[in-house]
Amino acid sequence: MRSCEEISKLTLSQGNESLALALRFERFFHLMMCGNCRLAFQQFKLMKTTTLTRTQQQIENASEVPDQLIEKWLNALPLDKEKNDHN
User: Fold this and answer.
1) Angle 5-14-48 from CA coordinates, rounded to 5°
2) Would the pTM count as exceeding 0.90?
């Protein structure tokens, strides 16, 4: 059976892809027996959900920015126009 440290690393490194069936069973049985890892796993899931929700909200808010304001921001950027003008 894997240690608490291995289970934590496995959970953190999982990302969005699913685990192999054997690893899922190992983690499941470990979480059934270890309350600390179960709590950590719940916190990992909460952080992931919160981060995804916040990212989606930021994307939605960004789409509400008027095109005129975006154009104004782009025009204010010091782009390579000065280099091209000197050549």
Assistant:
1) 100
2) no
